[in-house]
Amino acid sequence: MSGFFESAWAIAERDMRAEWRSREIFNPMLFFGLLVIVLFSFSFEPDAEETQRIGGGLLWMAFLFSGMLAMNQSFPREMHERTLHGLRTAPIPPASIFAGKFISNMAFVVLAECVLSLLFAMFFNLPLLPILGRFAAVLVAGTWGLVVTGTFFSALTLHTRMRELMMPLLLLPISVPHMIAAVSATAELFQQQTLSQLWFTQLIGYDVVFTTLGLLLFHFVIEDV
Predict the structure, then answer these.
(1) How many CB atoms lie within 10 A of CB 128?
(2) Among 196, 199, 186, 200, which residue's Cα sits nearest to residue 124?
(3) What is the pLDDT of residues 145-196, one digit of tens each?
(4) Cα–Cα distance measured from residue 49 to residue 203, given in angstroms and rounded to the nearest whole number
(5) What CA–CA distance (Å, rounded) separates 63 from 186?
(6) pTM of the predicted model, to two decimals?
(7) Could you count the other beta carbons within 10 Å of the beta carbon of residue 209?
(8) Each residue's pLDDT tens digit, 10-23
């Protein structure tokens, strides 16, 4: 297990170091998410009550589409100079490659979401400080399931035609229950400042199930790389 975590962290650290130098994923994510929030702010012009009611859906829509930019490029950029082939032939378990990619994607997406959440609170005049801890818990739980499925489908569609289209087509339908739970939990948090145990439990259950499936099935996905 120590070797699994060491190799996963090494892969994640390499990705995060490369992204820190290039910003080729984070900047487009931030720009796209900001664009969605700005368009919503000019389209709806909601009052405080309306913001609390629809804010969860608007915020998670920005998270979803900006996050897909990061996950869509997770494995394809490893095809340059056959880097993924080198990882596949290295003496490490295939699941550690998946775990490392998940960790780096999670770091990118959560960091972008923190910035977008602050911007959303500014544009929609929504006080986040009273609910910051509970909001952070929903954000991490909701992002976890989104990133773990997106990372898996990024590898699954690596050699398919029209890969940029196929990944969202696979990810969006399977993420619907998870997004419903994340949006509902966030909306209830904005309206009543309480965290719904039902929706939060559903988020955790989704995370556990799809993380386990991703780790168990990943070696089938990359065995022909």
Answers:
(1) 15
(2) 186
(3) 999 999 998 888 877 777 777 888 888 899 999 999 999 999 888 888 888 8
(4) 26
(5) 13
(6) 0.88
(7) 12
(8) 888 888 888 788 77
